[in-house]
Amino acid sequence: xxxxxxxxxxxxxxxxxxxxxxxxxxxxxxxxxxxxxxxxxxxxxxxxxxxxxxxxxxxxxxxxxxxxxxxxxxxxxxxxxxxxxxxxxxxxxxxxxxxxxxxxxxxxxxxxxxxxxxxxxxxxxxxxxxxxxxxxxxxxxxxxxxxxxxxxxxxxxxxxxxxxxxxxxxxxxxxxxxxxxxxxxxxxxxxxxxxxxxxxxxxxxxxxxxxxxxxxxxxxxxxxxxxxxxxxxxxxxxxxxxxxxxxxxxxxxxxxxxxxxxxxxxxxxxxxxxxxxxxxxxxxxxxxxxxxxxxxxxxxxxxxxxxxxxxxxxxxxxxxxxxxxxxxxxxxxxxxxxxxxxxxxxxxxxxxxxxxxxxxxxxxxxxxxxxxxxxxxxxxxxxxxxxxxxxxxxxxxxxxxxxxxxxxxxxxxxxxxxxxxxxxxxxxxxx
Length: 431
Prior knowledge:
alpha/beta, TIM Barrel, eight-stranded parallel β-barrel, 15 helices, 13 strands, 12% strand
């Protein structure tokens, strides 16, 4: 295959509303690297991992969850940024992630009630009430946030963004999806407040808008701000009221309303996703077979908003070959190709597609312990642990190894995180 046959849209630069230019359309979406220790500090391993991805040719690298409060973590191994104590290491991470002309954006987040009880027995949320669904037993019932606490969290988001910019990251992504705190405010199922942060959609979206405005004030008008937003709270794997999302949850119509208002506020990119803890995006560990069944995620929603938004969109999930990427870009349903799990196995995938003209398919393996009942019992935990192991290998200067089995990945996670490894976590590796 020659370079002449490479889908050239993928290689084209993209200029964001703030004026920043991205060299190509590969958008490495967030995965929890799980490389931080108990001090929640970034490490040299983060720098080595992101240097490898930057050299691999992606236009944008989005970090895994960086929490704005070290007492409120979403997963084991999260980095937390509250002050400048880790500024030197953050600078090393940002410097590595921006090699080869790449952008490196810090994803900033707060888990709200979606913080496993093994990590945090005292979570906070817009309203009280336990987590629904099969994972509910793994989470403590949260305390409702006061107005003062809400304002403190808004300040924390802005402060983390300020520090990210000072450290040399070239953008931030505000995580408002996947059942974390901002998504909880947006959802009428989670948010039952009666003050200015609850009730109508305008009130439920106020927290996100306040966070966005505070972050914009902290970083200035020329610094990229992306927002990761659910198309709806409906899971892909369960077809429940598909037109409007999970019954009573954040709907597609509401999502479009929020996107339009983020566009008016000056957001630079919207990263489309979906699902929550109690309604997760993926519920199997079948690898390539699962990808074949599903194809590229959220395409119907992306087509729906195509004529309604002018802000660039990143469509994340299910891209496994250059043909699908080229088609999505050519149709104009997305301006960035969001990829995560394939880059844990093929870190230089962008170079292979753009530079070498590779048109193959990244087939993700089926991850199994070898015992059906255990595969079912550990499910998503097994998948997350397996991809965390691959990232850990890259961070230690080793090559990914698709032959590694599920049991080895599970034991690795237990060694790294202790009992917390066996509790469900938001599936960062669904892309």
